[in-house]
């Protein structure tokens, strides 16, 4: 079969299945099946695909037409300039989560300073691994209730050569740990249970429910984190949490009740309050 015919057929199949950018995704799937880059494909559209390659391409196209996330099919997703291994055991890293990395970076003037970082609900490890690549003097711990997720996170730490500065703990939030940590980050599950049913099929059918379901109001994880963060956070430390749409006020209230100070709530590019920066209030100085 000619490459251009296989590509046309795949793009049509993906368009019918409701994929927003069918041609671009068809090219990526063809690259995964054949090893031919987009440049190779564009440069020689009349080359013929052997039978095994054409069959492998068709399998990938069918998986995508079944609305399996492209990242799971390719096995990789880019986050903050690094490529992470992903599988259906972990949430695929989202671009909006990069705000957490930026907030932490802005708060740490010396990237080489020694510090301890905690990533609660690490999933693929994208937050902790990225922070460790940026903070060369840091040691970090990632927690998750999902043991298979921690295996992927550890693999990603090794992939990005920070494995010797990372530890992985399977526990509920951070209940197996002692502080203090100078930096605590977390992107907890925050989708309300009722919203889960109407999410796009890629998320609803394929991403791990444990990574998404935040309970009836989407706030269950934040309630747990409001209890867990204060005793683990260093006196001069910061905590940065991702927020679901419309959750800024409620999460700020929970954290304030837990004795934390709200330093900033930062919007994402769409103007949605996406991350909350917290610290411990300054202690009054004794004269
Ligand atoms: C929204 S995902 C975030 C994953 C990753 N940090 C990211 O930003 O892509 C939430 C993560 O929390 C984990 N999780 C859910 N409940 C947990 C719990 N009770 N204790 C620890 N981790 C939990 C899930 O397995 C999932 O990996």
Low-confidence stretches: none
Share in helix = 40-55%
Query: How confident overall, as mean pLDDT?
Result: 96
Q: What is the CATH fold-level name of the largest domain?
A: Rossmann fold
Strand order of the largest sheet: 5-4-3-6-7-9-8
Number of strands: 9
Shape: elongated
Largest sheet: 7 strands, mixed
Count up the helices: 12
Number of discrete domains: 2
User: Which ligands accompany this protein?
Assistant: S-adenosylmethionine
Percent of residues in β-strands: 15-25%
Radius of gyration, Cα only, in angstroms? 21 Å
CATH superfamily label of the largest domain? Vaccinia Virus protein VP39
The CATH top-level class label of the largest domain: Alpha Beta
Question: Helices and strands, in N-to-C order?
Answer: HHHHHEEHEHEHEEHHHEHEE
Gap between N and C termini: 84 Å
CATH architecture of the largest domain: 3-Layer(aba) Sandwich
Structure description:
With 287 residues, this protein is an alpha/beta fold. It folds into 2 domains: 3-66; 81-279, Vaccinia Virus protein VP39 (Rossmann fold, 3-Layer(aba) Sandwich). Helices cover 41% and strands 20% of the residues. The protein has 12 helices and 9 strands. The chain has helices spanning 3-16, 22-34, 38-43, 51-65, 70-74, 98-107, 126-134, 147-159, 193-196, 201-206, 220-232, 248-257; strands spanning 76-79, 82-85, 115-120, 138-144, 166-170, 181-186, 233-242, 261-267, 273-279. The strands form 2 sheets. Strands 5-4-3-6-7-9-8 form a 7-stranded mixed beta sheet, sandwiched between helices. A two-stranded antiparallel sheet has the order 1-2. β1 and β2 (82-85) form a beta hairpin. The longest helix is centred in the N-terminal third of the chain and has 15 residues, at 51-65. Bound molecules: S-adenosylmethionine. S-adenosylmethionine (SAM) binds next to α7 and β4.
């Amino acid at each position: 079969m000619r490459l251009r015919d296989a590509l046309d057929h795949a793009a049509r199949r993906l368009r019918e299945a409701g994929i927003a950018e069918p041609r671009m995704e068809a090219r990526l799937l063809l690259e995964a099946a054949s090893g031919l880059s987009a440049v190779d494909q564009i440069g020689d559209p009349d080359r013929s695909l052997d039978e095994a390659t054409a069959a492998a391409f068709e399998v990938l196209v069918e998986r995508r037409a079944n609305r399996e996330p492209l990242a799971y099919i390719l096995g990789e997703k880019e986050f903050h300039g690094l490529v992470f291994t992903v599988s259906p055991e972990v949430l695929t890293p989202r671009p909006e989560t990069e705000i957490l990395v930026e907030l932490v970076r802005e708060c740490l003037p010396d990237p080489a300073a020694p510090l301890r970082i905690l990533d609660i609900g690490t999933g693929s490890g994208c937050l902790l691994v990225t922070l460790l690549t940026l903070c060369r003097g840091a040691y970090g711990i990632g927690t998750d209730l999902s043991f298979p997720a921690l295996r992927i996170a550890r693999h990603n730490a090794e992939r990005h050569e920070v494995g010797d500065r990372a530890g992985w703990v399977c526990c509920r939030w951070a209940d197996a740990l002692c502080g203090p940590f100078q930096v605590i980050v977390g992107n907890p599950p925050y989708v309300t249970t009722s919203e889960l049913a109407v999410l796009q099929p890629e998320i609803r059918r394929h991403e791990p429910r444990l990574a998404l379901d935040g309970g009836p109001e989407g706030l269950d994880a934040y309630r747990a984190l409001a209890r867990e963060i204060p005793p683990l956070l260093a006196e001069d430390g910061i905590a940065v949490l991702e927020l679901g749409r419309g959750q800024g006020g409620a999460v700020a209230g929970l954290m304030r009740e837990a004795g934390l100070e709200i330093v900033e709530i930062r919007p994402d590019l769409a103007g949605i309050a996406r991350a909350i920066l917290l610290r411990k209030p300054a202690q009054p100085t004794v004269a």
